[in-house]
Amino acid sequence: MIKNTMIASAAVALFAAGSAQAALIELTSVTGTWTTTNPSAPTVTGGGTNEIRWGTPANIQNQQSGYRFDGSAPPTASVTENVDFNLGTFTHFNWPITGTALSSAELTVQTDLMIDGISETVSSVFEFQHLETPNGSNPCADGGANGVGVNVNGCADRVTFSLNVGASDSFLIDGVNYFVDISGFFFGGALASEFWTKEYFDNTATLKGVITSRVASVPEPSTLALLGLGLIGFGVRKRMVKAG
Predict the structure, then answer these.
(1) Which region is the signal sequence (predicted)?
(2) Which of 8, 130, 185, 221 is deepest in the core (most CB within 10 A)?
């Protein structure tokens, strides 16, 4: 009975490191800040906030073109491991304008998580390239005809976005490594690097991430073998003592 108890206890001790209960993971806050623009202020306004604008309005709505990032939290949202979750939405506002337009911009996204009661932060930087096209060109910059499809209201503008730094991070909590991967921007249901936006329209892409975990250490097969030999040796010695 004692030997069986010891074997069971040893098995629990060895394999506990190989399994972990699902952690409570919460997305508590996501903020986006436009940290760099080219050109800078006063041509492009809003640097240091979540929304930038540029151009002299050439529309009766008196609207400038612009970019905005809206974080998906707060309110706090639960995150399931191995399942994509939304961090926020990038929006391009495309209005007919004159004057100097945006050429490029950098967006810093700070993601705050709570993993089993412990606060962790991931900071990611995204680089955007902007092509403000002449509305009267034919064909348009995308190769299509003016007045048709995405160019129905004049030539569409192109936004290109790429992950720069901070694409992923990891945290060790209670013996478990949690890996946070900022996947990138999704457009039309797929991971994308660019889109074209109609004049007088807004276009949006969703920033997504995924969290996975792995125990920090798992016993090697040799360790298991050594423990097994030790338990066998213990049993042999016990029988020899009884025989003596």
Answers:
(1) 1-22
(2) 185
* CA–CA separation, 68 and 53 (whole Å): 9
Report d(CA 76, CA 21) in Å as an integer.
22
CA atoms of 152 and 144, how far apart (whole Å): 10
Q: How far is CA 22 from CA 136, 146, 213, in A?
A: 57, 54, 9
Closest-CA residue to 44 (of 91, 128, 105, 96): 105
Cα–Cα distance measured from residue 111 to residue 168, given in angstroms and rounded to the nearest whole number = 11
Cα–Cα distances in angstroms (integers) from residue 172 to residues 101, 178, 216, 219, in the given order: 44, 6, 8, 18
pLDDT for 23 equals: 83
Give per-residue burial for 72-97: e unless 16+ CB within 10 Å, then b: bbeeeeebeeeeebbbbbbebbbbbb
Give the count of beta carbons closer than 10 Å to the beta carbon of residue 196: 21
The first and second tokens of residue 169, run together, are 């991070």
Which one, of 131, 132, 109, lies nearest residue 122 by Cα?
109
pTM above 0.85, yes or no: no
Q: Which of 126, 152, 155, 162 is nearest to 140 (CA)?
A: 155
C-alpha distances in Å from residue 158, one per residue of 41, 134, 198: 22, 12, 9
Angle between helices 221-243 and 2-15 (to 10 degrees): 170
